[in-house]
Amino acid sequence: MRITQGCFSFLPDLTDEQITAQVEYCLGRGWAIGVEHTNDPHPRNTYWEMWGNPMFDLRDAKGVMMELEDCRKAHPQDYIRLNAFDSSRGLETVTMSFIVNRPDNEPELRMTRAESRGRGQRYAWETQR
Amino acid sequence: MNADAKTEIKGRERYRAGVLKYAQMGYWNGDYEPKETDLIALFRITPQDGVDPIEAAAAVAGESSTATWTVVWTDRLTACEQYRAKAYRVDPVPGTPGQYFCYVAYDLILFEEGSIANLTASIIGNVFSFKPLKAARLEDMRLPVAYVKTFKGPPTGIVVERERLDKFGKPLLGATTKPKLGLSGKNYGRVVYEGLKGGLDFMKDDENINSQPFMHWRDRYLYCMEAVNHASAVTGEVKGHYLNVTAGTMEEMYRRAEFAKELGSVIVMVDLIVGWTAIQSISEWCRQNDMVLHMHRAGHGTYTRQKNHGISFRVIAKWLRLAGVDHLHAGTAVGKLEGDPLTVQGYYNVCREMKNEVDLPRGLFFEQDWADIKKVMPVASGGIHAGQMHQLLDLFGDDVVLQFGGGTIGHPMGIQAGATANRVALEAMVLARNEGRDIAHEGPEILRAAAKWCKPLEAALDTWGNISFNYTPTDSSDFVPSVSVA
């Protein structure tokens, strides 16, 4: 099952050239980019593993692409995403996020249901390979 | 009107029993300089024939503060000069004979902290029925920071909503379930599931879906949450459905909101017609219960649309940001409902900016510092479709919910395909914009390129590509010629 989190999951997987263009867009706006990876794409899995800190003060997209390449080599079967951070007052959050690597076989999210009050159900999802 | 009629009378003469002009009673002061803590209202007034505009402006100030039609001696028991609102500037409306912009300043003491009900009872309580005016419209309002800080504002705000949903860097996508009346709970939930699975972030109850004989509210909530959670499981994304909690009493609204929470919904909605106090109450509840609050502006067109009388939607948007809503329907510019592009952008700026600068073409007459109160996510809904994606993104940027109801559910290949068409169109357009392409002009080409590999988008463009709603806007700026998109 194709996980469709992030900005561009409904498009064909981005080429490195396309990823570079998006990184340049982010750097041009003064955002710092962080590389993160995980093997658990659960929708509530907020904290993926950081591949180093967000790259503040970086000017050249090549820096991000090198880190991404290293992360891909180390975790080829993980999801990898690029997050852009904006530190401006009133934002101070992630302003863009998109997946740049996927495992060959993506897991399923199995939904479990448990009876609750009345006809209500308690729902939970479990990542299954 | 002679000079004396415009001059405040002071001392004993002022309080002799009888009737004075409003200006003579002290409600006009052309030399007044508003204080930083004053609230300023800008009215567009159309005085009756023969009524001097300055006296009319003074009357507006008087009737929206302390005045009554005759002199009362009991004024003298109070610091009455401070309670009097002061009209201090009257300008003819450019190109519209007989209409005037009048500026009125109100001292902060006139308003109860944190109560839109009190603010509106003062400012729009009496004056709109006042006989010496043919018509009056509240065009804009400057809210002093000291007053803004008495409100909690949106319970969630754009930043936190995005963090909760884990969705960044592009507009959110939604759709209103259609037909809006008649579906059973089970059928209704089917539409929700299809739309969300196909690629939308949100589905939505319409304004008049409450708890009618064909669908009890609890049934709807249960089936919708089954749909929402199932769609999350098959996409890996956080999804939501705006469960409308609008009801006949506040008690019933709380009951519905509690059930939505119990079922794990991330968002509830109310209609504007529930009234200011109910809005502030449900906002407080949302704040206590980690719930995003969607506001459907049902009914606003009755008083916002006509330029000569009523209240501009930009003022309603300001009040709603104070009252505390997270989503607000603010127009599409290109869709089926009223609003020229610049005026609509003005509403969006009221919702989203930290500080509004004066921007007359967009209808913003005052600088407005929002004092870090949270931002409201505007919602573009009503007659929009995938073929307009470049225009929508160009006009409104990323922080907006684009809602394609008919444009999803009416898709020839089905609801999922309709949702996918919108999602692909959006992602392709954001990608292209970020790559530096001129989407306003290259948009149709970008959409056609994506349609080559996405059949649902191709079908959407073939079905609706040429649909536009090109009518002259009723409510547009007085300071630039109006332009229409599409």
UniProtKB/TrEMBL annotation, chain A:
Q: Does the keyword Zinc-finger apply?
A: no
What InterPro entries has UniProt attached to this entry? RuBisCO_ssu, RuBisCO_ssu_dom, RuBisCO_ssu_sf
Molecular-function GO term, any one:
ribulose-bisphosphate carboxylase activity
What Gene Ontology terms for biological process does this UniProt record contain?
reductive pentose-phosphate cycle
Which superkingdom is the protein from?
A: Bacteria
Q: Where is the signal peptide?
A: none
Which residues lie in coiled coils? none
* UniProt entry keywords in alphabetical sequence: Calvin cycle, Carbon dioxide fixation, Lyase, Plasmid
Instruction: Name the SUPFAM superfamilies on file.
Output: RuBisCO, small subunit
**Subunit comment:** Heterohexadecamer of 8 large and 8 small subunits.
Per the similarity annotation, which family is this? Belongs to the RuBisCO small chain family.
> Any miscellaneous information on file?
The basic functional RuBisCO is composed of a large chain homodimer in a 'head-to-tail' conformation. In form I RuBisCO this homodimer is arranged in a barrel-like tetramer with the small subunits forming a tetrameric 'cap' on each end of the 'barrel'.
Q: What does this protein do?
A: RuBisCO catalyzes two reactions: the carboxylation of D-ribulose 1,5-bisphosphate, the primary event in carbon dioxide fixation, as well as the oxidative fragmentation of the pentose substrate. Both reactions occur simultaneously and in competition at the same active site. Although the small subunit is not catalytic it is essential for maximal activity.
What protein am I looking at? Ribulose bisphosphate carboxylase small subunit
Q: Which organism is it from?
A: Sinorhizobium americanum
Which gene specifies this protein's sequence? Answer: cbbS
Automatic annotation (TrEMBL), chain B:
Catalytic activity from the UniProt record? D-ribulose 1,5-bisphosphate + O2 = 2-phosphoglycolate + (2R)-3-phosphoglycerate + 2 H(+); 2 (2R)-3-phosphoglycerate + 2 H(+) = D-ribulose 1,5-bisphosphate + CO2 + H2O
Q: Enumerate the residues binding Mg(2+).
A: 204, 206-207
Q: Which molecular-function annotations from GO does this UniProt entry contain?
A: magnesium ion binding; monooxygenase activity; ribulose-bisphosphate carboxylase activity
An example GO BP is: reductive pentose-phosphate cycle
For site (Transition state stabilizer), what residue positions does UniProt give? Answer: 336
| Residues annotated as the enzyme's active site | 178 (proton acceptor), 296 (proton acceptor)
Q: Where does substrate bind?
A: 126, 176, 180, 297, 329, 381
Cite the entry's keywords alphabetically. Calvin cycle, Carbon dioxide fixation, Lyase, Magnesium, Metal-binding, Monooxygenase, Oxidoreductase, Plasmid
**Gene3D superfamilies in alphabetical order:** Ribulose bisphosphate carboxylase, large subunit, C-terminal domain, RuBisCO large subunit, N-terminal domain
Question: List-wise, which residues carry N6-carboxylysine?
Answer: 204
Q: Which PROSITE patterns match?
A: RUBISCO_LARGE
Cofactor names: Mg(2+)
Source organism, top-level taxon: Bacteria
Annotated cofactor note: Binds 1 Mg(2+) ion per subunit.
Known EC number: 4.1.1.39
Family of the protein in this entry: Belongs to the RuBisCO large chain family. Type I subfamily.
Additional facts recorded: The basic functional RuBisCO is composed of a large chain homodimer in a 'head-to-tail' conformation. In form I RuBisCO this homodimer is arranged in a barrel-like tetramer with the small subunits forming a tetrameric 'cap' on each end of the 'barrel'.
PANTHER family xrefs: RIBULOSE BISPHOSPHATE CARBOXYLASE, RIBULOSE BISPHOSPHATE CARBOXYLASE LARGE CHAIN
Instruction: Outline what the protein does.
Output: RuBisCO catalyzes two reactions: the carboxylation of D-ribulose 1,5-bisphosphate, the primary event in carbon dioxide fixation, as well as the oxidative fragmentation of the pentose substrate. Both reactions occur simultaneously and in competition at the same active site.
Q: What is annotated about its quaternary structure and interactions?
A: Heterohexadecamer of 8 large chains and 8 small chains.
Q: What is this protein called?
A: Ribulose bisphosphate carboxylase large chain
What is the native source organism of this protein? Sinorhizobium americanum
Query: What are the leading ranks of the lineage?
Result: Bacteria, Pseudomonadati, Pseudomonadota, Alphaproteobacteria, Hyphomicrobiales
Gene designation per UniProt: cbbL
